[in-house]
Amino acid sequence: MGALLEIDNLQTHFFTSGGTVKAVDGVSYDVNAGETVAVVGESGSGKSVTALSILRLIPKPPGEIVGGEIRFQGKNLAFCTEDEIREIRGRDISMIFQEPMTSLNPVLSIGMQLTEPMMAHMQMSEAEARERAVKLLELVGINEPRRRIDQFPHHLSGGMRQRVMIAMSLACEPKLIIADEPTTALDVTIQAQILELMKNLTREMNVAMIIITHNLGVVARYADRVNVMYAGRIVETGKASDIYHRPRHPYTLALLKSVPRMDRPRQAKLDPVEGQPPDLTRLDGGCSFRPRCKFAIDKCAESYPPLEEMGEQHFSACFRSKESLAEIEL
Amino acid sequence: MSEAQATVSKDHGAQFRGTVSDEILVTVKGLKMHFPITEGVIIPRKIADVKAVDGLDFYIRKGETLGLVGESGCGKTTTGRCILRLEDPTAGEIMYDGKDICQLDNKDLVDVRKKIQVIFQDPYSSLNPRMKIGEIIGEPLKVHGIIPDEAKRRERIGYLLGRCGLHPDFADRYPHEMSGGQRQRVGIARALAMEPEFIICDEAVSALDVSIQAQVINLLEELREEFNLTYLFISHDLSVVRHICHRVAVMYLGHMVELSDCDELFDHPLHPYSQALLNAVPIPDPDLEKTREHTIIKGEIPSPINPPPGCVFHPRCPLAVDSCKKNIPDFREVRKGHWVACTEV
Fold first, then answer.
1. What is the tens place of the pLDDT at every residue in B278-309?
2. For chain A, which domains are there?
3. I want to staple B209 with a disulfide (CB 3.0 to 4.6 A). Which of A34, A42, A70, B320 is the partner?
């Protein structure tokens, strides 16, 4: 059986007055049914643009998917018609956005927003949809769902709004949920509640999830597999334990070494990645991490290193990955 | 890693550099900050108070970094603003160098403000977009008449930029021409311009990407050592706090619930809220996370307009007993230097 979602050499570029921004420049990854895959990276690494490309939510102009394929259950979403993608969006693939404050419509009641996709995709009557909406609100842990359903987003706290977003994303029994920084705007105790809820619900319903985040802790707690992105490309991919304990790419290694750990006493000064992320309009043919990399050699300037197999399901895009880069205790 | 590098990192080892003296720089006693909520336009009546900060006692030693942690709305930022006297506290005193900041008149306040500086969270909104970087950093030097000569001032601005890891040419740029990390370095250079003793870092690294965040954390530490600074480090990021702070205070709904040495607090938290908070933070280690027990506290933070009676944490607390609903627990010292506001530990 093939994967639920296969992204193959996706390229999404933005054509701006300052030049072409290659936000996503040849990204490939798979998501199997029921599994949780994380995409980690810093701002501008292209992790959100990849996710938005899957649902074809890239504003055009200036953005455009210029190449590659996104196969969902065998269908190429990258170049299907708008009507075809509308069938899938919100039904088979749904999305949870970062900002629970701005991603709900402030002038529609919670009930209206929850029932709309069910009436559109599942041919439910208004009464049926409302009944299911109440059940969904209960499922995501909202007290008094029958009262809450007629309230508006401004009546709810940030944590509750994110619960409503989760209820909306589950409304049409999707096969895949894309969660873009779902808890970044929330406090830690609320973040733990929301992530635990998402984990339990996706397990119970066997929904696959792509979780996009910059928080390495969240990834460690919830993801089965991890893709690390830098400057529009995946630099390393593998099972979570391989990525965290046996990183092979210098960027992954540097990233792990630059976060302080809460569970152990201060060891030493942090070892940050020096310099700034590259300007995506001015990428040359070489490895884009080269200017900040401690391990860079002449060869890195000549061509972009391909993803090479390092172990079972473990790939790294670095010419020097096979040398023992990471014999450092993490 | 080569041998030479290994020695360097050992040198930078577990110990902090710079000295923490026994001398106390700031003492806060019984600090309260209530914001009134009014009703009516023509004759406003007070109908309630937002009890943002409701009785804090702590001190900060010279040369140390005190962490102030807690979730949104717990009053950590308000505490910082009171020390800067950007708010007029409702009650309590803030002693700085033997003077009560709350009682100073404007003239004396100007002198104190030269010594206390602040670095804000958002590097996008805390720099004036219409001013050049050089003007932003140089303004306090001009206003306070410290370096009236323009050429000398430019020299000092260049030095400050260089010290914060930016090229002196940045002085002629505008904030929008810079990245978030660079702007935060400008914020730090501006705070340093007055040669302060004490800097309040209000979520100073929270908005930055991890690789840039680590650079700025290291810069803050170097500056503390070099200029013998004292920091009040306000943050919700517990991993960063463990790394950078000597002592840590945990706040919840306007109250301080626990205060102790950094490692003591992270390894042996006593207050149930501190325990819950530490437990909620995911650790970047998948193997460890699999075996770690996740006890997640229920419910949300109550409103500070109408906080629960007695211990403010009791509605969410796993240890709560009947008396917690009535009596406000004392902030007591259970071990040397380890303070906690809970009767059940």
1. 988 888 888 888 888 777 788 878 888 888 99
2. 5-223 (3.40.50.300), 233-316 (no CATH)
3. A42
Q: B219 and chain A: CB distance < 8 Å anywhere?
A: no
* B287 contacts A188? CB cut-off 8 A: no
Residue type at A311 in one-letter notation: G
Domain at B18-130+174-340: CATH architecture:
3-Layer(aba) Sandwich (3.40)
Cβ separation B263–A219 shorter than 8 A: no
A187 in contact with chain B, both atoms CB, cutoff 8 A: yes
Residue spans per domain, chain B: 18-130+174-340
A279 touches chain B (CB under 8 A): no
- What is Dmax (Cα atoms) for chain B? 74
Q: What tokens does A132 get? A: 């299911």
**Alpha carbon distance A276, B284 (integer Å):** 23
Question: H-type helices in chain B, by residue range?
Answer: 3-11, 76-83, 106-115, 133-143, 150-163, 180-192, 210-227, 238-244, 262-267, 272-280, 286-291
pLDDT in tens, B72-121: 888 999 999 999 999 999 999 999 988 899 888 888 888 888 899 999 88
pLDDT at B253 > cutoff 50: yes
Please judge whether A220 and B238 are an interchain contact, meaning their C-beta atoms are less than 8 angstroms apart: no
Provide the 10 A C-beta neighbour count for residue B174: 15
Q: Which residues of B touch A215 (CB under 8 A)?
A: 282
Within 13 Å, how many C-alpha atoms sit on residue A67's CB side?
Answer: 9
- Closest residue to A273, CB basis, from B16, B211, B282: B211
A183-239 pLDDT, tens digit per residue, is 877 788 888 888 888 888 888 889 999 999 988 989 998 898 999 999 999 999 999
Angle among Cα B270, B221, A255 to the nearest 5 degrees reads 80
A25 torsion bin: left (phi>0), alpha (psi -120 to 50), beta (else): beta
HSE-up (13 A, CA, CB side) for residue A226: 30
Site of tokens 């029994």: A173
- Closest chain B residue to A295 measured between Cα atoms? B1
Closest residue to B281, CB basis, from A222, A262, A271 = A262
Main-chain phi, psi angles of B285, to 5 degrees: -160, 100
Burial B196-225 (b: 16+ CB within 10 A, else e): bbbbbbbbbbebbbbbbbbbbbbbbbbbbe
**Does position B170 have pLDDT exceeding 60, yes or no?**
yes
Q: Residue A17 above 90 pLDDT? A: no
Does the beta-carbon distance from A265 to B289 stay under 8 Å?
Answer: no
Size of interface A-B (CB pairs under 8 A): 152
Amino acid identity, position A7: I
Q: Is B293 on the interface with A (CB under 8 A)?
A: no
Average pLDDT over residues A284-308: 88
pTM: 0.85
